């Protein structure tokens, strides 16, 4: 068995020492905070990723590849974050998160070694001392290269008998998830950026061909890339797919100035403020046969929108609307199969607009599940269905197709166009995590196949007026929720929220601590704009008074 590399680890640990009394926690999407505070966390995460790889053995008892993604997605430019991606491209299992938290909070190497050494030794022995395998990527944040180098410095301090890694530098979050899985599952794709682009463009163009749809007639889409990594990746994708390049125009693509990231643009800005981003005006957004879309800072969220022509009113097509559009296409295709017993389900969070959930249950007659915020929670629930469609209202989501789905559909291959299209959708829609580019292509294909324009899509149902507020509090950990984050256990203000809700027509409101920002979020919806704003103010006031 290879010896535990105590000295090498200690020297890197001491080079990037933790602060006094560290109090970090692996949250909704890994560790996320001011970039200057992340150095010691990188050492903890890189070490844990090695152990995770050693613990995930394939059928030949060889460690599988684990991903490390350095990003803070929708957060402001000065933040950064890091998360671990499991062999199949999903998130680090939740029962490993406390370990990540513990390692990040070790104040001395002695404490750190006490936790990591027994695990490393145990798993390395089970892996017959074969090396751990890792892939690493980062978004365009200014702090990204420096934080990434802390990880590679750690890996380089070991011999390659202990760790083999591939550094991809700049990647979108969904690319990193795709590449991680492809290293472990050759049937999933080629583990490279070009493999990812080919998989998307081939499946997309083949779907269009089955319906004789020329790319020229697709809706023209203007994409706000949040001045983030999605801009570079969308450009690269369009270079590899010239037949699509005239249908997608990119705005907010300034990745050379890291301070512009997510500023007045991007999916989070558009969804939260319910207005157009910088770079897209109401004339552009109301052009015929067009659509606007926003990616977030690491290109794993998508929202679409347009402006109504005569009134120039902004109309948002958020994650709820995307889920419903995709479920409409998938349900239509399923009914065209010669036979099937596949169960489709839709997973949302408490942020889903009440009107969307009613539409799913009452019109689509599909099962609807409410999960806690965080794609890891939704992903888990969606896996319980043969076809699990999951989207957060903020545009983070995807559609998971099960093994049963593939087995059933393969039976009809060659004699059912619907089966062929469904199998291609499984290729097009990222099976590992929400993916703005893949979701956008799925939306554009759905609109073309269903012969629906943005206005008709928006009219599927009408959102109840809603408002999401962010309240900065002294300690967000004082806010504890239950019932998929729809009710507060602590502090004792839930009954007051209930009273406000009862006084509001079609009212709904909840309070939850953010897992990615130092704040508490307050959501409110109601029958009218006025009542919604009143409810939001009342609940925000309650929270402010309590903190
Ligand atoms: C992350 C998570 C999402 C979550 C969002 C906000 O998104 O992956 O699932 O909705 O944070 O989370 P919270 O309200 O807990 O701050 P992203 O796109 O920032 O990685």
Describe this structure in words.
It is an enzyme of class 5 (isomerase). It catalyses: N-acetyl-alpha-D-glucosamine 1-phosphate = N-acetyl-D-glucosamine 6-phosphate. One of its GO terms (molecular function) is phosphoacetylglucosamine mutase activity. This protein has four domains: 6-170, 3-Layer(aba) Sandwich (Alpha-D-Glucose-1,6-Bisphosphate, Chain A, domain 3); 195-317, 3-Layer(aba) Sandwich (Alpha-D-Glucose-1,6-Bisphosphate, Chain A, domain 3); 319-458, Alpha-D-Glucose-1,6-Bisphosphate, Chain A, domain 3 (3-Layer(aba) Sandwich); 466-546, TATA-Binding Protein (2-Layer Sandwich), CATH 3.30.310. 40% of the residues lie in helices and 19% in strands. The chain is α/β, with parallel strands linked by helices. A five-stranded mixed β-sheet has the order 1-3-2-4-5, sandwiched between helices. Strands 7-6-8-9-10 form a five-stranded mixed β-sheet, with helices on both faces. Helix 7 (193-210) runs antiparallel to helix 15 (417-428) and helix 7 (193-210) packs parallel to helix 16. 1,6-di-O-phosphono-alpha-D-glucopyranose binds next to loops.
Do you know the CATH topology of the largest domain? Alpha-D-Glucose-1,6-Bisphosphate, Chain A, domain 3
Described by the principal axes of the CA atoms, the overall outline is: globular
Assembly status:
single chain
**What is the second-level CATH architecture of the largest domain?**
3-Layer(aba) Sandwich
CATH top level of the largest domain is Alpha Beta
Q: What ligands does this structure carry?
A: 1,6-di-O-phosphono-alpha-D-glucopyranose
Number of structural units classed as domains: 4
The residue-averaged pLDDT reads: 96
The largest beta-sheet arranges its strands as 1-3-2-4-5
Indicate the percent of residues in helices.
40-55%
Strand content is: 15-25%
Number of strands: 19
SS-derived structural category: alpha/beta
Summarize the main sheet: 5 strands, mixed
* Through-space gap between termini: 53 Å
CATH superfamily name of the largest domain? Alpha-D-Glucose-1,6-Bisphosphate, subunit A, domain 3
> What is the tally of helical segments?
19
Poorly predicted runs are none
- Rg from alpha-carbon coordinates: 23 Å
């Amino acid at each position: 068995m290879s010896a535990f590399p105590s000295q090498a680890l200690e020297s890197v640990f001491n080079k990037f020492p933790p602060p006094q009394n560290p109090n970090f926690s692996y949250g909704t999407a890994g560790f996320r905070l001011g970039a200057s505070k992340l150095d010691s966390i990188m050492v903890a995460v890189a070490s844990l990723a090695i152990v995770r790889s050693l613990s995930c053995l394939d059928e030949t008892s060889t460690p599988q590849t684990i991903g490390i993604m350095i990003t803070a997605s929708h957060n402001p430019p000065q933040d950064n974050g890091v998360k671990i991606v499991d062999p199949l491209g999903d998130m680090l299992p939740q029962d490993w998160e406390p370990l990540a938290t513990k390692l990040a909070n070790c104040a001395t190497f002695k404490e750190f070694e006490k936790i990591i050494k027994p695990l490393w030794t145990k798993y390395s022995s089970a892996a017959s001392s074969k090396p751990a395998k890792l892939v690493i990527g980062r978004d365009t944040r200014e702090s990204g290269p420096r934080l990434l180098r802390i990880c590679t410095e750690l890996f380089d301090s070991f011999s390659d008998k202990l760790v083999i890694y591939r550094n991809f530098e700049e990647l979108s979050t969904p690319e990193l998830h795709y590449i991680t899985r492809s290293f472990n599952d050759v049937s999933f794709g080629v583990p490279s950026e070009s493999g990812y682009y080919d998989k998307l463009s081939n499946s997309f163009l083949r779907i269009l061909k089955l319906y004789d749809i020329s790319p020229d007639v697709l809706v023209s889409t203007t994409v706000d890339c949040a001045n983030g990594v999605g801009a570079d990746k969308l450009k690269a994708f369009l270079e590899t797919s010239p037949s699509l390049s005239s249908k997608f125009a990119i705005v907010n693509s300034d990745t050379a100035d890291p301070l512009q990231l997510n500023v007045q643009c991007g999916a989070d800005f558009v969804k939260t403020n319910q207005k157009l981003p910088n770079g897209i005006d109401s004339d552009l957004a109301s052009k015929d046969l067009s659509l606007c879309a926003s990616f977030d800072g690491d290109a794993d969220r998508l929202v679409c929108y347009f402006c109504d022509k005569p009134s120039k009113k902004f109309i948002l097509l958020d994650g709820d609307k995307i889920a419903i559009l995709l479920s409409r296409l998938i349900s239509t295709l399923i009914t065209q199969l010669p036979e099937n017993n596949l169960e489709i389900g839709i997973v949302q969070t408490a942020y889903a607009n009440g009107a969307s959930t009613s539409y799913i249950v009452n019109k689509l007659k599909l099962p609807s599940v409410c999960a806690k915020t965080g794609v890891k929670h939704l992903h888990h629930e969606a896996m319980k269905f043969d076809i699990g469609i999951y989207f957060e209202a903020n545009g983070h989501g995807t559609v998971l197709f099960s093994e049963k789905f593939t087995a059933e559909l393969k039976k009809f291959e060659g004699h059912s166009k619907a089966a062929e299209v469904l199998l291609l959708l499984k290729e097009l829609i990222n099976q590992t995590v929400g993916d703005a580019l893949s979701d956008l292509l799925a939306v554009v294909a759905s609109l073309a196949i269903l012969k629906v324009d943005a206005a008709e899509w928006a009219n599927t149902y009408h959102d109840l007026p809603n408002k999401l507020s962010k309240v900065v509090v002294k300690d967000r950990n004082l806010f504890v929720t239950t019932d998929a984050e729809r009710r507060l256990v602590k502090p004792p203000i839930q009954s007051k929220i209930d009273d406000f809700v009862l006084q509001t027509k079609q009212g709904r409101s909840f309070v939850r601590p953010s897992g990615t920002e130092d704040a508490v979020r307050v959501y409110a919806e109601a029958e009218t704009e006025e009542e919604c704003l009143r409810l939001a103010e009342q609940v925000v006031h309650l929270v402010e008074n309590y903190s």
